[in-house]
Write a structure and sequence with these properties.
Length: 209
């Protein structure tokens, strides 16, 4: 005869885990980590608190999974653009244009979860802020590496400061995210992107592409 423990372990979940996770993504994206409570999450996900803990662990464990899911579905465009385009400028240009579109797409929260979720966070949640900061810095480092490769190939002038230029682009992207959350439309963000690209160093001969 099956024990009570065996029956409980074999009992199927009464909710779709992927759908619940998607709702958690939206909750954290809209409110940020600190302001999103367990009751907010259970309401959005349509499950009870015990079901949430059983399926996802605590709030921090759920958030870690949310960040991975966000990157898979929405947030990976920057790293893809830099990796796939033949030059750093082409990658950055594509990333900025895609940011303008992604951050203002109707039917989803505005801006970038990785940029905004740790705003106004308490010291008790410092590890969350540190984790998101490292993700942002990883993108900046990837841009810097692409810039250094272009310097080595002659695509960019030898005196180009790769670190400063990459940090500038990172600041522009973060600013675009906040502007989107403040209500800026796609065309406004595209104008910001165009201005940022004007600061890109020109290669020998005067071309900037």
């Amino acid at each position: 005869m099956a024990t009570k423990e065996t029956k409980q372990r074999g009992r199927p979940r009464s909710f779709d885990r992927e759908t619940a996770l998607e709702q958690a993504v939206r909750s954290f994206w809209e409110r940020g980590y600190e302001a999103t409570s367990i009751s907010d999450l259970t309401r959005a996900m349509g499950i009870s608190a015990p079901s949430l803990y059983a399926a996802f662990g605590d709030k921090r464990a759920l958030f870690d999974e949310v960040v991975v899911e966000y990157g898979r579905l929405y947030g990976g465009f920057l790293s893809r653009a830099v990796a796939e385009e033949p030059t750093a400028r082409r990658g950055v240009e594509r990333a900025l244009r895609e940011a303008a579109a992604e951050y203002t797409l109707p039917g989803r929260p505005r801006g970038c979860l990785v940029i905004s979720a740790a705003l106004n966070i308490s010291p008790a949640s410092a590890e969350v802020a540190d984790s998101l900061r490292e993700m942002r810095l990883t993108n900046v480092r990837a841009i810097a590496a692409a810039i250094r490769a272009d310097i080595a190939s002659g695509e960019l002038p030898p005196d180009t400061d790769a670190g400063a230029l990459a940090a500038f682009i990172g600041a522009v992207i973060q600013g675009m995210s906040q502007q989107a959350r403040d209500g800026a439309e796609r065309t406004e963000l595209e104008a910001i992107a165009e201005l940022a690209l004007k600061a890109w160093p020109r290669k020998a001969g005067g071309a900037s592409r």
